[in-house]
Amino acid sequence: MSTTAEQTPETTIRIDTVPGRGRRRVRVAVMHGDTAVHLDTFEIENAGKRTAFIGKAEERAERLGITVNRDRIERALLEDAVQDHPTGAANVAEQADSGEVLQAFGIDVLGEMDDQSIVCWVPETGKRWRVKSPANWKIEEMFQAMGQRALNGLWREPGQPPSGRYKPEALREAVAIVAATSPRLTASRFVGQGVWRHESQILIVNGGEACLYDGSMFDPVSHPRLGSKIIDFHADAGWGTDLEQQVQAMTPERAAGALQRLQGVLGHWNWTHAADAEVVAALIPATFIQACWTWRPLVSIIGASDSGKSTLLGQVIVPVLGEWTIAADRSTEAGLRQRIGCNAAPVVIDEFDLYSQRQKVLELFRTSSRGGEILRGTADQTGISYGVRHIAWFAAIESGDVWGQDRNRFIRLELLPPEHRGELALPGSRELGELGRLLTVAAIWAAPRAVELAEAIRNTIVPGVHGRLVESFAVPAAMQAVLMHGREVSREVAVETLRRMIGGRAALIGQGERDEVQLLRDILNSTVRVSEPSPSGNGSVQVERTIGQILGTAIRPNGRPGLGTPNSTALTTVAAMGVRFCKHHGSDQQRLFIADDVVLRRLLRDTRWAQSRIDQILSRLAGAERDQQRLDDTVRSRGLSLPWPSCLTELGGCDNDCDNANP
After folding, report:
1. Using one digit for the tens of pLDDT, what is the confidence trace for 123-140?
2. Where are the domains of the chain?
3. How far is the C-alpha of 646 from the C-alpha of 423, rounded, in Å?
4. pTM exceeds 0.85, yes or no
């Protein structure tokens, strides 16, 4: 038997019986024109399997940028179950009765959490209500959730209830039955206050209201379920007023004027790079729509204690970002995560110098870049998952020894002490708040084009700069291009803005260095104590030298004179640390042998590489080969050998004048 469910010009659900004995299995395909959205084979009478299929179809459709009708798919599956299986017909009858009960009380079951609690929506009271266990749902809690609707609909007297009224147990059963075929909900599905991306549109959640914006029209959203998202309408207050009217009234001239005013305020600080004030000014409106970007950079503002970091954050950035900004010092990862919740409020963290929670906080915001999740086990074995979608701002005296994967996510901006001491002539907090509200409107107005433009320029090649850093700077570059030149701005103008923001930042070279290059640099920069002839010519003295200095030869990649031939005692000391010269097998080619396990124990045990497989990392260097060599006259050690001195060219990316042989 083969059936084709209800069709629209866009979506088709096809259900085919799979031949075989035992319980009936079907192959279900959800098509969007000629595109296969989702295909799977399962027992159609199993409510859990139907729920899982629908959830995966929704997620797949969202990734493809396609809208599918959940109710249409669910109805097609249930109708097929009724047609071919009496048990299915009974289930559908129960579903219909349950739907009647829930409609009487104005309850919509949104889905089931991993701990089997049920999330409901009550439009009359505007509450998203979580029923931990239907069997234990107390009548008083029903009144709290539904208000007058519960008073009018619940029947608590003996005997059969009159038409239109139901006993509490009927409501409990209805919630449980409908929850059985509702989608499984995770924390990542909930979206709260802020501006979000939904397919090709912008979703704005402001207080208890939500709407979709496509760049020209606003479409109100009254139901919390939007595709695979669940909108959290529960908020004490909104973060914007008259957004729709103000966005419709926004003009390129007003947007450019607001951004230029902010650039002027930020120009009071002594930035190390000429474009830093522009970058910060563009990152602020980019933060208003932070959940919309495909890639979200993190922002690090560093500088000495007297450079004005706290003044910048407290008197300018936070007032412009608005009162709903989460501004904190040295917070814990759990505290930040719980405060953020499912909202897209701006996050600003001051005093982010080295402290016990810094790495955990960085791990949390690592999920922000492309919207990943952290998985954690729980005592009840259900587990939890969470992540953020934020362009977080960090201020500290120094950026710290963070891993390369975090370092490449940061736009790092540095402040110098002011050239002229004195009181800054800054606008008041009220004026900055008004400027922030204007920039919020401008950011929403610019969002559809700016997000598209950032995608178009993120793969721009900037010589000597890591691709991920280019992608990070593409966000403020795209926002500035649209705000300054309007929504019709060309890709070429955005690329020019990107190159100007990056140009001349020598520090980006080290910031974007690959892990294998950083590791080789750290090995060669490790220090040992060796004996050298005394300057007076009488005996020897103990001095501290880097591995790179000891290995220095007369041959360098840049052709400069070397440090001379190292003495045999120094080479023996270096070999004991796991590093020595060797010959390539079958040739006279000189190579540098690194015994990874010895190097880890002797040189890197107190560094961030201590728990790493450095052999796997070093093997990514050009010309690296697995090898075995003797470090002394006993056993052979396993490791890698690198061509010498050509491997040192990997370290010479900073500028043309860097000392490649002595990193």
Report:
1. 888 888 999 999 999 999
2. 1-84, 110-185, 188-241, 252-511, 515-651
3. 54
4. no
